[in-house]
Amino acid sequence: MLEILKSLLFGIVEGITEWLPVSSTGHMILLDEFVQLSMSEAFKEMYLVVIQLGAILAVVLLFWKQIWPFQRKSDGTNKVLPGWIKEDIFVMWLKIVVACIPAMIIELAAGDYLEALFYNYRTVSIMLIVVGILFILVEDWNKKRTAKITSIRDITYQTAFLIGVFQLVAAVFPGTSRSGATIIGGLILGLSRQIAAEFTFYLAIPVMFGASLIKLLKFGVHYTALEAGVLAVGMISAFLVSVLVIRFLMGYIKKHDFKIFGWYRIVLGIVVLASFALFL
After folding, report:
1. Is the pLDDT of residue 119 over 90?
2. Which helix (H) or strand (E) holds 71?
3. Would you place residue 58 in the very low, low, confident or very high pLDDT band (cuts 50, 70, 90)?
4. In this predicted structure, what is the pLDDT of residue 36?
5. In the chain, what are the domain boundaries?
6. At 84, which helix (H) or strand (E)?
7. Are the beta carbons of 81 and 72 closer than 8 angstroms?
8. Which among 22, 34, 62, 89 could disulfide-bond with 69, CB atoms 3.0 to 4.6 Å apart, if both were Cys?
9. How far apart (Å, rounded) are the C-alpha atoms in residues 226 and 2?
10. Sorting pLDDT into bands at 50, 70 and 90, what band is 251?
11. Residue 41: exposed, middle, or buried by beta-carbon count in 10 A (0-12, 13-18, 19+)?
12. What's the pTM?
């Protein structure tokens, strides 16, 4: 029962931090330092990635009409015409594939090595602070600019690739925040806050599914009843919390910028560094 409660806590933290630009991986690594699951190292390595599937299913639910290209249409009467492909959504997915290329190459080439090298509290703390400062600086600079891209369809393949390069930084350094890196990149490249956030959500779908599939294949298909329960609770709680957080964030950014998340990151990074310096 204790492990189930721990997994519930991990799921809640994942659901909150996956979509807010504060680094879900960083928070999960830090949480694991203080609330450790009493499971095998192989299971925990898989769990901390696959739990993200619950979070990504929230995006699929909330943005289904915007991401599913195979839809039916009506001719204005009660008659529903046969299925058809929405070209703008299909093109959007091609751009998302382009944006995934930089991180995919690095992950396949050196994913395990980078994970062993950088997945620790020092890297997380430093990147929390650095990216927090960047958020504040970029938002101050962005106030003087008018967004050039206010629709997903206006994102070019070149812009998509460059956003993917920003995402690459998050793939290498935990604590960066994948959503934080792509949102900062989007703002710099001229995307409005809402479109930068939306594209970040869509970009997460293949990234998280791909990362989870790799971890699941490495771990295998044999689970104990406890392992299956822990994984299920983590995913379900991450899903439910993610639905609430995504709705909150999309409403929040219509009237506010991201600077508050920058300040949060800086404070958290300093607290973590100080805590480990005192107690380790």
Report:
1. no
2. strand 70-71
3. very high
4. 82
5. 2-68+85-279
6. strand 84-85
7. yes
8. 89
9. 11
10. very high
11. exposed
12. 0.85
